[in-house]
Every structure is written in C-alpha cells, then in structure tokens.
Amino acid sequence: MVISRPIIAILVVTALVLPLAQAVLFLVGLLLRAMNDLPGYGIVEWIILITLVVWVFDLVLLVVALGIRALGPPDSTSDR
Q1: Cα 22 from Cα 28, distance rounded (Å)
Q2: Cα(44)–Cα(3) distance, rounded to whole angstroms?
Q3: Helix residue ranges per DSSP H, 35-79
Q4: CB of 15 closer than 8 Å to CB of 58
Q5: Which terminal Cβ of the chain has fewer Cβ within 10 Å, N or C?
Q6: Rounded (10°) angle between helices 5-34 and 38-71
Q7: 10 Å Cβ neighbour count for 6?
Q8: 80: number of Cβ within 10 Å
Q9: With contact defined as beta carbons under 8 Å apart, do 17 and 61 qualify?
Q10: What is the pLDDT of residue 73?
Q11: What is each CA distance from 32 to 8, 25, 52, in whole angstroms?
Q12: What pTM did the predictor assign?
C-alpha cells in the first residue's frame, strides 16, 4: 500500500494550520474571559482541547504515512 502525495500534503497542511487556529482560539478565549463571558470561554476551551487532540492525531498519522511511503516501492516519477 502506497500513500499518495495529496494525502501527505493534506496531513502536512493540517499539521501547520491547527497550531495557528489554536493560538487564535486561545486569544479569543482570553478576550472572552476579560469580558467576563465565562460560558463562551468554557466553550472556546473545549474547542481548543478538541483541536489539540486532532493535531496530535494528525501528527501520528503523518509519521505513519511517511513511514509507509518510505518503506513502499519507489516512485516512478522520481528523478534519478
């Protein structure tokens, strides 16, 4: 089984975008807490936790996909 390049590209982009989303959500949470909107702050905290879990899962999938790709047959389009 060979992992295609688009799948690896999606995993890499997701691994780069999720920490940025977490930073933005963290700042939104700080703003909500400063405005004493504790229910909104709690919701944002849960969303940050979910994005963290998805990010870790994505990193594990990326490592596994790259390992499978490295152990698979060589690409026919690779430059030699």
Answers
A1: 10
A2: 34
A3: 38-71
A4: yes
A5: C
A6: 160
A7: 8
A8: 3
A9: no
A10: 78
A11: 36, 10, 20
A12: 0.82
Cα–Cα distance measured from residue 26 to residue 47, given in angstroms and rounded to the nearest whole number: 10
Q: How far apart are CA 21 and CA 52, in angstroms?
A: 10
Torsion of CA 25, 54, 14, 12, to 10 degrees: 140
Tokens matching residue 3: 């992992």
Cα–Cα distance for residue pair 12/65, rounded to 1 Å: 11
